[in-house]
Design goal:
By secondary structure, the protein is α/β, with parallel strands linked by helices. The chain has a single domain, classed as Aldolase class I (TIM Barrel, Alpha-Beta Barrel), CATH 3.20.20.70. The protein has an eight-stranded parallel β-sheet. Strand 7, helix 10 and strand 8 form a beta-alpha-beta unit. Helix 3 crosses helix 4, helix 6 runs parallel beside helix 7 and helix 12 packs across helix 13. The longest helix has 26 residues. The radius of gyration is 20 Å and the shape is globular. The protein starts with 7 loop residues before the first helix and ends in a 6-residue tail after the last helix.
Length: 360
């Protein structure tokens, strides 16, 4: 790497419109990411639980303090207060970026309660509350059937949305349309939208994971290399449609499994939210940093995936699923379950502080 660039990720953001976020609210990891050009970060209860495992020494005292400050609070009350404070701390670290980028970048995402995925009003109201925590907050709402309505409503209320639990082209297009409706409703009432920066995530690695599971369950033989391209193909297809239709939401790639989830998206007007371990891998790699976003995925790969996997077809084709089908799609169900389980695990961590196990 030349003296001009600190790292491959720094070069990625320096030579293109591609942005990098840190896929964590860990202080150590976020500082590293910002040093290498990151302009955002993300969190959720699962990430908070993982941060506590790594940085408990930074938060143990505060957890005990919160328990005292909320004497009638449940473990959920304490867990959400902790979740909010981690997000606010990350927002503070990103404030210089937020101001430098004229408030269009430098945000941290905080996620609504995954258990609300069927209740649009609870998600929208929680999003509106999170919006008040810091000026550079972005709010994650799942792209479930109910989540789509929540995304429109929260956008209308001025919340900067990051649609999550999204893996497919049809989900991303419905999200983009909901955001457009919300923005237009705001504008019709004379409200400013110039500083809003809505985002739609496609969890590319989780789509790869699901198609691999389908191949195993249904005994489908396919070139194994092709299974590493499912998420890339869907993301690039969605990107081309977003550009064609002029959607104001930006696409974000998440859930990293291989270097294609970085290298194939370089050069696009997109966001890459990258876990710390993958940032380190990419920065220590010899992958050439050059624009590839406009390079199509080999048609042979796409054709074979479409031919052999109905669930890839549903993910790839713009009308492959209706919103009513989003919640039961394999990747959605698996991710919602893991997010809810992660949330319950976080509650268990807080419970151990509130009611220490006398047998330990």
């Amino acid at each position: 790497m030349s003296d001009t660039y600190k790292s491959p990720l720094h070069k990625t953001v320096s030579i293109s419109d591609t942005d990098v976020w840190n896929d964590s609210c860990s202080v150590e990891e976020l500082n590293y990411a910002i040093e290498n050009g990151a302009v955002g970060a993300t969190t959720n209860p699962v990430i908070v639980g993982n941060v506590l495992k790594k940085e408990m020494h930074l938060w143990e005292g505060r957890i005990r303090q919160l328990i005292r400050e909320i004497p009638e609070g449940s473990e959920e009350d304490v867990a959400w207060k902790l979740n909010e404070e981690m997000a606010v701390k990350g927002a503070e670290l990103l404030k210089p970026v937020f101001h430098r980028e004229k408030e269009l970048k430098g945000r941290i995402s905080i996620q609504t309660n995954a258990k609300y995925y069927r209740n649009w009003k609870r998600m929208a109201d929680q999003a509106a509350y999170f919006h008040t925590l810091a000026p550079n907050i972005q709010v994650k709402i799942p792209a479930t059937n109910a989540g789509i309505k929540a995304i429109e409503d929260a956008t209308y209320r001025g919340v900067n949305i990051n649609a999550t639990v999204c893996f497919t082209v049809p989900q991303s297009l419905v999200v983009a349309e909901a955001i457009e409706k919300g923005l237009k409703r705001r504008e019709a009432e004379g409200n400013d939208t110039s500083k809003m920066s809505p985002v739609c995530t496609i969890m590319v690695g989780r789509l790869d994971d699901w198609i691999k599971i389908v191949a195993n369950k249904e005994n489908i033989i396919v070139n194994p290399d092709y299974l590493e391209w499912c998420g890339v193909a869907a993301f690039k297809h969605a990107y081309s449609i977003f550009k064609e239709r002029g959607y104001r939401a930006r696409l974000l790639a998440a859930a990293y499994r291989n270097h294609y989830h970085w290298s194939e998206f370089i050069g696009g007007d997109v966001i890459l939210t990258i876990p710390y371990k993958w940032q380190k891998r990419f920065n220590n790699s010899d992958i050439e940093v050059k624009p590839r976003m406009n390079n199509p995925v080999d048609p042979k790969i796409v054709e074979e995936l479409l031919d052999k996997f109905e669930d890839f077809r549903r993910a790839y084709e713009p009308e492959g699923m209706t919103p009513e089908e989003f919640d039961s799609y394999g990747s959605t169900a698996r991710t919602l379950r893991s997010f809810i389980q992660g949330y319950e695990s976080l509650l268990g961590t807080i419970r151990d502080f509130m009611i220490p196990d006398p047998d330990v």
